[in-house]
Amino acid sequence: MMSKRQAAFRADYRSKISPWYSGIGHIGVVYAIGIAALAYCIPRIHALSALEWAVVPIAFVGQARLRVGSTTRHALRSKHMGPPPIRAPKAA
């Protein structure tokens, strides 16, 4: 169940989105640009070396690690959790 605060935020956020915006249209444009870029670039690839082929999986792995790392850091820095408290050392 959604809290009243969350429902109010959601209603306010959605009211600020233009009526011309379409999520499906957004996805379509992004995919169309990506497919057009691939269609342009792939025919121009010739005689790749092993090192050049290795760039592709390394890039995918690197992107995945960055996404997981940033998501984890964001979750750990949530305002609900906050940083651990700093305690003064006990006197001897």
How is this structure best described in words?
- There is one protein chain.
- The chain is built from 3 helices and no strands.
- The chain has a domain at 21-76.
- The protein starts with a helix and ends in a 16-residue tail after the last helix.
- The chain is flat, with a radius of gyration of 23 Å.
- The chain has helices at 4-15, 23-41, 50-76.
- The chain is mostly helical and 92 residues long.
List the defining traits of the structure above.
single chain, 92 residues, flat, mainly alpha
Strand content: under 5%
Distance between the termini: 51 Å
- Main sheet makeup: none
Global morphology: flat
What is the subunit organization of this protein? Answer: single chain
- The averaged pLDDT comes out at 83
Low-confidence stretches: none
Determine the number of helices (DSSP H or I, runs of at least 4 residues). Answer: 3
- How does the helix and strand content classify structurally? mainly alpha
- Strand tally, please? 0
Sketch the topology as an H/E string, one letter per element.
Answer: HHH
Give the helix proportion (percent range).
Answer: 55-70%
As a whole number of angstroms, the C-alpha radius of gyration is 23 Å
